[in-house]
Amino acid sequence: MHHELKCWPRPFEAHANGELPVTIRQNDRNFQPTDTITMTEYVPDLEIEHPTGYWTGRTADFVVNRVFTNVVGLQPGYALLTLRPLVIR
């Protein structure tokens, strides 16, 4: 299955550079190994009462290697995903 995910600039850069090969996400999508993910960089505007932001157009594609849901300290309903990069645009 393919997932489209929003990602803020600092973690996006770390994922795109391969410095951050994991991500923690709400597991409302039932992530599975071999799923693909497209992360799209999103810059939030946190200075106003009702946050808005903009998309940079930068994307990065990954394959989910492993999915962990029983990690000490991980909130119920969340998953730690290990990622392998595919394409960075």
Radius of gyration: 14 Å
* Side-by-side strand order of the widest sheet: 1-3-4-5-2
Residues in helices, as a percent range: under 10%
User: Structural class given helices, strands, pairing?
Assistant: mainly beta
Our measurement of the CA-to-CA distance between the termini, rounded to an integer number of angstroms, reads: 21 Å
Q: What is the mean predicted local confidence, pLDDT?
A: 91
- Overall 3D geometry? globular
Strand content: over 45%
Model regions low in confidence, pLDDT < 50 over at least 5 residues: none
What is the CATH topology? Archaeosine Trna-guanine Transglycosylase, Chain: A, domain 4
Count of domains: 1
Tell me what you see in this structure.
The protein is mostly beta strands. The chain has a single domain (2-88), classed as Hypothetical protein (Archaeosine Trna-guanine Transglycosylase, Chain: A, domain 4). 9% of the residues lie in helices and 55% in strands. The chain is built from 1 helix and 5 strands. The protein has a 5-stranded mixed β-sheet with strand order 1-3-4-5-2, covered by helices on one side. Strand 3 and strand 4 form a beta hairpin. The longest helix is centred in the N-terminal third of the chain and has 8 residues, at 9-16. The protein is globular, with a radius of gyration of 14 Å.
